[in-house]
Write a structure and sequence with these properties.
This is Protein kinase domain-containing protein. The chain is an alpha+beta fold. It is 36% helix and 24% strand.
């Protein structure tokens, strides 16, 4: 009887803890201020939240609108107590991540509960676009070339994205590609591990969903820009067979 009661209490505590973790990471619109104020170009501007766009490990992303101009932006919101501060990401964008194929960064702000990052709004990921559309070989090469331009730019900066994938690439007008997620980015000289010793011991680092990440990162070793090239090649394979070249596919062309 005692063991049964202890078991039930343990299950309840695990469930409560799990719910708390989910609530902590997945922020609701109702928990945000009615108006969000950012200082841009020496002027304080007010924004209202339109809709929820998605969430990641550290926080959630919302579509917001400038009260006066009606211009739309993407706002990343993160609880202050997470291990990775938005201020670190803000400094990366302000000092290093300035490139035509990297999302435009507009500002950083924090209050008593949250940190905020303001970005240009891009409506569709490259993954979603390629999943919905059969692209021509020439256009696909144009897309790939832009991604390689970004990776080469980061190589010169000695920055490693760490988890490069097409879901972290957005599509603008005229097939222009923009990288958006640098939450796991590190400098080659100052690195942090993406997987803990426990993850590696339990084999979590080799789970199917992480195989696009370079082996050296998954195994807790030091990495360089070559790791992002590995990820680029790995994830590109998923899409290349759907690219059209004349009457066949790209795979037929290479054969």
């Amino acid at each position: 009887m005692y063991l049964r009661k202890y078991f039930l209490i343990t299950i309840v505590l695990i469930f409560i803890n799990y719910k708390l973790i989910l609530c902590d990471q997945d922020i609701s619109i109702s928990s945000l201020p009615n108006l969000i104020i950012f200082k841009r170009d020496v002027i304080f501007k007010k924004y209202k939240v339109i809709s929820y766009l998605g969430h990641g490990v550290q926080g959630s992303v919302f579509l917001i609108e400038d009260i006066q101009t009606k211009e739309k932006f993407a706002l990343k919101v993160q609880p202050k107590k997470t291990h990775l501060t938005c201020n670190y990401i803000a400094e990366l964008f302000k000092n290093y991540l300035r490139h035509e194929n990297i999302v435009e960064f507009y500002g950083y702000y924090n209050d008593s509960n949250y940190e905020y990052l303001l970005f240009e709004y891009l409506p569709i990921t490259l993954h979603t676009y390629l999943f919905r559309n059969k692209e021509t070989f020439i256009n696909f090469l144009f897309i790939m070339k832009q991604m390689l331009d970004v990776l080469n730019f980061l190589r010169v900066q000695k920055i490693v994205i760490g988890d490069f994938k097409f879901d972290n690439m957005m599509l603008a007008e005229n097939l222009k590609i923009k990288a958006i997620d640098f939450g796991h980015a590190v400098f080659e000289k100052k690195q942090k591990r993406l997987f803990s010793d426990k993850d590696i011991k339990n084999g979590k680092n080799n789970h199917k969903k992480y195989l696009y990440i370079a082996p050296e990162i998954r195994n807790g070793q030091r990495c360089s820009s070559i790791a992002d090239i590995y990820s680029f090649g790995y994830v590109s394979r998923e899409y290349i067979n759907d690219v059209i070249i004349k009457d066949g596919k790209v795979s037929d062309f290479f054969e």
